[in-house]
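In this section we walk through a basic example: taking a raw amino acid sequence and producing a predicted 3D structure, encoded as discrete structure tokens. The instruction is simple. Fold the sequence below.
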Amino acid sequence: MTSEQHSVAASLRVGGQDDDLEKRLDEELTAFNTAAAGGAVTEPLSVRVTDGTGELVGGLTAWTWGTLCSVDLLWVREDQRYSGWGGRLMRAAEAEAARRGCTDMIVSTYSFQAPGFYPRLGFRERARIPGVPGGHQDVCFHKQLPPPKDETAGGHPA
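The resulting token sequence is shown next.
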């Protein structure tokens, strides 16, 4: 007995930005991944730093999914780089991820960005993927998160 799938008559279209397609793919993959991960739901996570005038100093966007947190974007304004904001943003995201039940955190950076930054925060390099323009690499990091600290509602240790 053989298993055979039948393809529907369809057309293939290549293009640029397609918001409707991206939304549909996200919905379909989220449903598939949620079912495969025992019902774990993806939740967005963000951390923002603003100065006294309300201007953005830096920020981080990520998502949590069950026991995993993945950092998508981390940026600090040029005049505030090397002032410790990157570490503070990452530590705040780690704390929130742990509070949500995450045990692992992943992030990638290009070899011309910040590959020396993440090991100082306890991340271990797991892969270097070539093919980035300019002869650079995508550098992938992983960190096991400690359990969340016991804190009161005001954010102070209990």
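Looking at the output, two observations stand out. The chain has a mean pLDDT of 93. The helical segments are 19-36, 85-99. In the next section we compare this with other chains.
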